[in-house]
Amino acid sequence: MSERPTSTAEQVRGVLAIDGGNSKTDVALVALDGTVLGAARGDGFEPHRDGPDRAIEKLAPLVEAVAEQAGLRPDRLLTTRLSACMANVDLPVEEQRLHAAVAARPWAVSASVGNDTFGLLRAGTDSPRGVAVVCGAGINCVGLLPDGRTARFPALGKLTGDWGGGGGMAAEAMWHAARAEDGRGQPTALSAAIGRHFGLAGANAVAEAIHLGRLPRRRLHEIVRLLFATAQEGDATALRLIDRQADEITRLAVVALRRLRLLDEPTPVVLGGGVLAAKQPLLIDNLTARLAAAAPLAEPRIVVAPPVLGAALLGLDHLEADRTAYDTLRAAYPTTEQDDAAALSTE
């Protein structure tokens, strides 16, 4: 068991866990006994826009905040292991660049940097074996075997064949709503719903407001809630979009299971991200039915705990922590139910 710091000169034996998401970033300092010594939240993590060095620089205030909470000096070595699971880190070269940027910081003795989907997988399992699909702002999937073999996807959006996630679903809803308005597409209640939500005439008025800078583009994710609400009222277009998302999530999971030869074995399939954590029945029931047909032995489970939990667990794995540490850490991040609207608004 690690000792709590008694002065600002001490180093905590434990983990600096980082979850860099599209819409928010969480940092936690966790002692080797699983105690959370400090936690902080900031804006989204965008190394593809900021570059690796600038992206890591933006994490510094969060690290300083957790160090202060733990009674440590942020300009000195903080802890034993840094474990970072980050969105927009989809290629090996991106992992290498961010690892170099992290290693240059006086934060930990050693560090690991990986895609945030690995954190989701670890949060939903007790062993390094299974498949995880994250459907948040974007969509991604990984599979992992105990010997280290993985199944991964580039996850670079439409360029690499991806469809959906909160951002993709919102864009598709806008596309269909705009075309319905001007007569190019089939009628849908999405246009009126989008207009009412933003206090404008319809989807095209919303698009114009975004284009002219009167409405922040980041608010497009709010359309995901409208999509589900419109589908619940029976709108055919909205229902088709949700059906397609369920199909896409299933395809990712089945391909990963097949690549790792796990289709014939009971295997956890961990589902997470804001869209899935909201547990909307129209999506979850569709998805689980598809998964049961395509991979009968798959064991779907939805994780609603903050993704930083997975990063911290991976760090404890590296340090070979006592089993009680895992129980202590998980108790700090209970997997309680989320409000549907709240989950969907933080993809």
From TrEMBL:
Highest taxon in the source lineage: Bacteria
Transmembrane segments: none
Domain ATPase BadF/BadG/BcrA/BcrD type intervals: 18-315
GO molecular function, one term: kinase activity
Name of a matching Pfam family: BcrAD_BadFG
Sorted UniProt keywords: Kinase, Transferase
PANTHER family: N-ACETYL-D-GLUCOSAMINE KINASE (PTHR43190)
Protein name: N-acetylglucosamine kinase-like BadF-type ATPase
Species: Nocardia pseudobrasiliensis
Highest classification ranks of the organism: Bacteria, Bacillati, Actinomycetota, Actinomycetes, Mycobacteriales
